[in-house]
Amino acid sequence: MASRRRMLLKVIILGDSGVGKTSLMNQYVNRKFSNQYKATIGADFLTKEVQFEDRLFTMQIWDTAGQERFQSLGVAFYRGADCCVLVYDVNVTKSFENLNNWREEFLIQASPSDPENFPFVVLGNKIDIDGGNSRVVSEKKARAWCASKGDIPYFETSAKEGFNVEVAFQCIAKNALKNEPEEELYLPDTIDVTGGGQQQRSTGCEC
Amino acid sequence: MVKKRVPDWLNSSLWSPPPPPPQDPVSRYDSKSATAAAASTTSSTAAAAKDVVVLDPPIPVPPPSLIRPEPPKAELRDPLSSSDENNNGSSAAASNSSSAEDMSRRAQLSQELSKKVLNMSELRRLASQGIPDGAGIRSTVWKLLLGYLPSDRGLWSSELSKKRFQYKHFKGELLMNPSEITRKLESSTSLGNDESKSESKGLLSRSEITHGEHPLSLGKTSVWNQFFQDTEIIEQIDRDVKRTHPDMHFFSGDSLFAKSNQDALRNILIVFAKLNPGIRYVQGMNEILAPLFYVFRTDPNEENVAYAEADTFFCFVELLSGFRDHFCQQLDNSVVGIRSTITKLSQLLKEHDEELWRHLEVTTKVNPQFYAFRWITLLLTQEFNFADSLHIWDTLLSDPEGPQETLLRVCCAMLVLVRRRLLAGDFTSNLKLLQNYPPTNISHLLYVANKLRAHSAG
């Protein structure tokens, strides 16, 4: 039978307080937006079944607290992550500037085996606000930063309007999947699931 | 002098259970302004009523259960009626519950509260079973349990006016923006301009600035330097205050009533953050503050309502004194930090239900930090509806040893109560269950928690 390890994709969402991490997760998983979310304390957890290239996976999404104080508690949440989503608010410069801290902190705490190639995805959220007029971080600037960090995929999203959220998470799933094979080496007998295992491995090398 | 406004003693002695020595703490706090302040104690205390909480004609406060949009939990319980009414069913035997008994507890509490010198252990015993809503009993009892009111009723009035004045003073000093501070320095200050201070709290206004105290001054002593450091934390407080109980009209929405309540939460958190530079503001403090302020602000006594913000501040400080280490990042890995407390919960579970402990932590690998971090740091305010949280707090605050041991027993009881579902569950279903704890008969939960105490002792 399929091993559970293989079928599970663990995704962590990081970013400053108030950038919309909880909203993005709920928009993706439940297709709902609410402006009544409370501040996340510790970490919240949702799952979603995703299909990718004819295979079903469970995506386990961890929505974390944004305040710096909680970073040192992250290790329990970060460990074993297959992809890390970094979120900032395009209307708040500081939240963009802090992406670097979040990325570095994640790499320190999660200590992935190949930090150079660990998959990140960056989301610039809240592009709907004020019709884009209050925006302070340009797409160009954000893309430049992503490029400088090893071509991190970048999406501009609106959790409120559901804009680009699905597409972004499909990319997140794909990248999380690329990260999987390495850990799968310990479970060679899982290849018979759907016959897609080898194929996955080859896409994994494209990055 | 202006920079070093907060002496160290404020960060220690005042916050620990024995209240500060009775000699006027204000004069130790700031000799210059306090002398002037002390002179006008009575008049400015009266004036404080006006600027602490903006009070329009009292607005009737709907019970939380009536305004919560989620019916399943909320309909079960009307916080202003007897709290155990719905307590029928399987656990009725366990939790000694009936309206009659509730009435008699109310009568007993009222009687206890009318004594000249209160018997605190009797009060704790009664309160631990749940304080009936209404009539302001909970408001008074919580203040007693938190040591804000002394057990001698004769001292209440002087103690309250002292504390309320002290808070007004904190606000005057700490909520001023730099323009106001420099203006105050210039006009070498009398207390006469109190009104202007409180009116424009936090907002930069244009004014003449001299003495090198201008926004571009990089001097370490510049009040502006401090101001910019504070701005970030105040923005965080603002964000979270707006997100406090977004489902309750008391805290949320566009009404003047909700706005004034949000202002009060904001003021308290800012004053606390400035007086406690080692902790400042940590997300979640707003959630611990909210029940206190709600209870004090809905007291039928008008004077208590007028000073709800000040009373809440001191009770918040007192409550947090037992838990502040959980909010301190530097202590995360120490024996007093949050990790250590979560480990205690794990040990407690292992002691009482090893099978469940093993299934959770070994078999399904649910790290207790994944669910218990929020349970413990927020004192269970997010896991149940608001009225139920108040009931749980009655019990937490009644423990003479402080709330933590009781809190851990309640958390452990929460696990034990859903053990069958947990034992049948895997990682995902168990974590979802514990992060979204199902509506529960609170009296029964507290009964089970109390049984754990007996079990440990015996």
UniProtKB/TrEMBL annotation, chain A:
<keyword id="KW-0636">Prenylation</keyword>
<dbReference type="GO" id="GO:0012505">
    <property type="term" value="C:endomembrane system"/>
</dbReference>
<keyword id="KW-0547">Nucleotide-binding</keyword>
<protein>
    <recommendedName>
        <fullName>Ras-related protein Rab7</fullName>
    </recommendedName>
</protein>
<dbReference type="InterPro" id="IPR001806">
    <property type="entry name" value="Small_GTPase"/>
</dbReference>
<dbReference type="Pfam" id="PF00071">
    <property type="entry name" value="Ras"/>
</dbReference>
<dbReference type="GO" id="GO:0005774">
    <property type="term" value="C:vacuolar membrane"/>
</dbReference>
<keyword id="KW-0342">GTP-binding</keyword>
<dbReference type="InterPro" id="IPR027417">
    <property type="entry name" value="P-loop_NTPase"/>
</dbReference>
<dbReference type="GO" id="GO:0005525">
    <property type="term" value="F:GTP binding"/>
</dbReference>
<dbReference type="GO" id="GO:0003924">
    <property type="term" value="F:GTPase activity"/>
</dbReference>
<keyword id="KW-0449">Lipoprotein</keyword>
<keyword id="KW-0472">Membrane</keyword>
<dbReference type="InterPro" id="IPR005225">
    <property type="entry name" value="Small_GTP-bd"/>
</dbReference>
<keyword id="KW-0813">Transport</keyword>
<comment type="similarity">
    <text>Belongs to the small GTPase superfamily. Rab family.</text>
</comment>
<dbReference type="GO" id="GO:0015031">
    <property type="term" value="P:protein transport"/>
</dbReference>
<keyword id="KW-0653">Protein transport</keyword>
<keyword id="KW-0488">Methylation</keyword>
UniProtKB/TrEMBL annotation, chain B:
<feature type="compositionally biased region" description="Pro residues">
    <location>
        <begin position="57"/>
        <end position="66"/>
    </location>
</feature>
<feature type="region of interest" description="Disordered">
    <location>
        <begin position="1"/>
        <end position="111"/>
    </location>
</feature>
<protein>
    <recommendedName>
        <fullName>Rab-GAP TBC domain-containing protein</fullName>
    </recommendedName>
</protein>
<feature type="compositionally biased region" description="Low complexity">
    <location>
        <begin position="81"/>
        <end position="101"/>
    </location>
</feature>
<dbReference type="GO" id="GO:0006886">
    <property type="term" value="P:intracellular protein transport"/>
</dbReference>
<dbReference type="InterPro" id="IPR035969">
    <property type="entry name" value="Rab-GAP_TBC_sf"/>
</dbReference>
<dbReference type="InterPro" id="IPR000195">
    <property type="entry name" value="Rab-GAP-TBC_dom"/>
</dbReference>
<feature type="domain" description="Rab-GAP TBC">
    <location>
        <begin position="132"/>
        <end position="400"/>
    </location>
</feature>
<feature type="region of interest" description="Disordered">
    <location>
        <begin position="185"/>
        <end position="206"/>
    </location>
</feature>
<feature type="compositionally biased region" description="Low complexity">
    <location>
        <begin position="33"/>
        <end position="56"/>
    </location>
</feature>
<dbReference type="Pfam" id="PF00566">
    <property type="entry name" value="RabGAP-TBC"/>
</dbReference>
<dbReference type="GO" id="GO:0005096">
    <property type="term" value="F:GTPase activator activity"/>
</dbReference>
